[in-house]
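hey
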């Protein structure tokens, strides 16, 4: 249980420091890697609500 809490804390801190919009109350149906050959990884998350949310992940 302690290890799980540490992982969750780390993920929350990461999301906050990178200003990520994390929504834990929405179920993801599919995660698509867009433009895999491009300079910056891009992703689309499909949810039951319809159109995919698109974003860029930078390292």
């Amino acid at each position: 249980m302690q290890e799980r809490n540490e992982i969750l804390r780390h993920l929350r801190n990461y999301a906050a420091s990178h200003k990520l919009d994390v929504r834990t109350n929405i179920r993801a149906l599919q995660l698509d890697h867009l433009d895999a050959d491009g300079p910056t990884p891009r992703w689309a998350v499909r949810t039951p609500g319809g159109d995919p949310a698109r974003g860029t992940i930078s390292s």
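The beta strands are 30-34, 42-47, 50-56. The chain has one helix and three strands.
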